[in-house]
Design the sequence.
């Protein structure tokens, strides 16, 4: 069975073309989201936030990921609050983003700080 760290390394390599040797697990958050296009489907998961440093390029695998762009922390924080006011199908980010950014600012900031 694949460990969380092994799965994260595999996904980083397959989805982003990045080799990460060491991850730090920072947060585990349960979240639930119903598919706004078909209510028969939902996500009911534990979300693990792992952080690592990477100084090179990223190569998104379009078969596995929908999009990739650099976004400043403050922008995601602001947009996630705005997303909660929108219909789920019109939201900018995946449901787990709003779940994470609904935590206290200090907790979110500490989670994503890479030392």
Sequence:
């Amino acid at each position: 069975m694949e460990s969380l760290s092994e799965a994260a390394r595999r996904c980083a390599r397959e989805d982003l073309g990045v080799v990460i040797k060491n991850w730090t697990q920072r947060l585990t958050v349960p979240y639930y989201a119903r598919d706004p296009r078909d209510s028969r489907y939902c996500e009911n998961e534990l979300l693990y936030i792992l952080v690592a440093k990477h100084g090179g390029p990223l190569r998104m695998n379009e078969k596995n990921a929908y999009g990739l762009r650099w976004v400043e922390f403050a922008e995601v924080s602001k947009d996630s609050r705005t997303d909660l006011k929108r219909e789920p199908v019109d939201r900018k980010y995946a449901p787990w983003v709003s779940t994470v950014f609904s935590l206290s600012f200090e907790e979110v900031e500490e989670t994503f700080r890479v030392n």
